[in-house]
């Protein structure tokens, strides 16, 4: 299985709106529309497939996370393109300037316009 291409499936209510976000703000490389209606992007060694689903997402967890070399630089870059990051202050999970240190990584969260929770993470160990 380790040599096979992985596709992350993300539900979206409004495919056109989601495409504007993934192409405009995240600048992912479009593979194209598939006959079944989903729209696919190439990202690193994986694919992200947006599939129309009337009720959208129900997940309350991170759907996908992008590994970055410098999380602060990545946040500044995405914020310059209109991406809004979340801040949290829970026991065991507190962000400072959008970033939380979790063991051996830093993480920052944002959502796409469809409600999918996305993350940036940087290894620090």
What does this molecule look like?
The protein has 125 residues and is α+β, with helices and mostly antiparallel strands. The protein has two helices and ten strands. β2 and β3 (39-43) form a beta hairpin. The chain is globular, with a radius of gyration of 15 Å. The model has no long low-confidence stretch (mean pLDDT 94).
Quick recap of the structure?
This protein has 125 residues and is an alpha+beta fold. The chain has helices at 15-25, 71-80; strands at residues 6-12, 29-33, 39-43, 46-52, 62-67, 89-90, 93-94, 100-102, 105-111, 117-123.
For this entry, what is the oligomeric state of its chains? single chain
CA-based gyration radius = 15 Å
Give the ordered list of helices and strands. Answer: EHEEEEHEEEEE
Strand order of the largest sheet: 1-4-3-2
Percentage of residues in DSSP E strands:
35-45%
**Straight-line N-to-C gap:** 27 Å
**How many beta-strand segments?**
10
Query: In terms of per-residue confidence, which ranges show pLDDT below 50 for 5 or more consecutive residues?
Result: none
- Specify the biggest β-sheet: 4 strands, mixed
By secondary-structure content and strand pairing, the structural class works out as: alpha+beta
DSSP helix count? 2
Helix content estimate:
10-25%
Mean pLDDT: 94
